[in-house]
Amino acid sequence: MMHFIFSDEVVLLFDFWSVHSPTGMALSVLVILLLAVLYESIKVGKARLLYQALMNLSIPTSQQLIEETDQDSSSSDSLPVSRSPLRWFLCHFGQSLLHVAQVVVGYFMMLAVMSYNTWIFFGVVLGSGVGYYLAYPLLNMT
Amino acid sequence: IGHSHHMGMNMDMSGGDNSTMPPHHHPTTSSDHSHNHMMMMMPMTFYFGFKNVELLFSNLVINTAGEMAGAFVAVFLLAMFYEGLKIAREGLLRKSQVSIRYNSMPVPGPNGTILMETHKTVGQQMLSFPHLLQTVLHIIQVVISYFLMLIFMTYNGYLCIAVAAGAGTGYFLFSWKKAVVVDITEHCH
Asked: pTM score, two decimals?
């Protein structure tokens, strides 16, 4: 049975990423931390691109619906009238690329935790926290 | 304490070599000799290869390039199906909302006016068909997500690329008309 251990030796993800020393471990934890920050930022980035894509489609978002008072808002069930098909397509394509990046980074983080090295695990958890803290306020910026 | 890497039958994994066997790494994290007898037959770093690749089940072993190509396509389609299933569940959920509760509360608006912000809570009855269907689809989604995780855990480069590409393509194709409400706090999904 595997269990979490504190150790200065680990091989992470790739053959060339083998750590033997405390310095190497500190650096690796930093890299993993930044990876987790990247993961949270990608999630925010996707949401922002979605917002942009919806703007291009002139579908009112829930934020806009709250701001509208007595105006008739267009029904979201009608066919989307794209103001700029190319921009919308680019937004959607960008979202898909970010999705691929999110899947890959997410799996990398899972595999890093699977090394069962406690320092690495702390790096992932801390990085997720720092990433969430830094990225989520950017969600509502327009 | 430095353990040198003992590799079962190994080979030189410098990339570009297509026909090597997956390296069997012993984890060097243990500082206790007696634990090393319990060796991990699973690779712990990424490799490209198609010989003797076990995929999820004991009698599903890839040995040739053709089988790897088939496995690539199957994994690609599985990842695409997973993304489609997620979108389909979202759509089904929206369509089947039954009871809707409105809570209105005043919030300060621009120019000092007071706006009424309305929160909508929706729910489903427990024994209704939509909820049961959602539950079945949820189980399928959980199983497929764990399968994809286990496939990625084979550390086989081709299969991992298939997972990522399938997820991207599925997201691109199925999210064409995506809901306005985005839940970005979900992890891994």
From this structure: 0.70
Residues of chain A in contact with residue B181, where contact means CB-CB under 8 angstroms, are: 62
In this complex, the residue of A11, A44, A107 whose CB is nearest that of residue B44 is A11
Q: Which residues on B lie below 8 Å from A120 (Cβ)?
A: none
pLDDT digits over B141-173, tens only? Answer: 999 999 999 999 999 999 999 999 999 999 999
Contacts of A97 in chain B (CB under 8 A): 168
The domain segmentation of chain B, as residue ranges, is 1-41, 52-188
Q: Residue A1: what pLDDT?
A: 76
Tell me the Cα Rg of chain A. 21
DSSP result, A39-84 = HHHHHHHHHHHHHHHHHHHTPPPHHHHHH--SSPPPPTTSPP--S-
- Put simply, the answer to whether B180 touches A46 (Cβ < 8 Å) is no
Structure tokens at A18: 């083998």
CA distance B122 to B136: 20
CB A61 within 8 A of CB A53: no
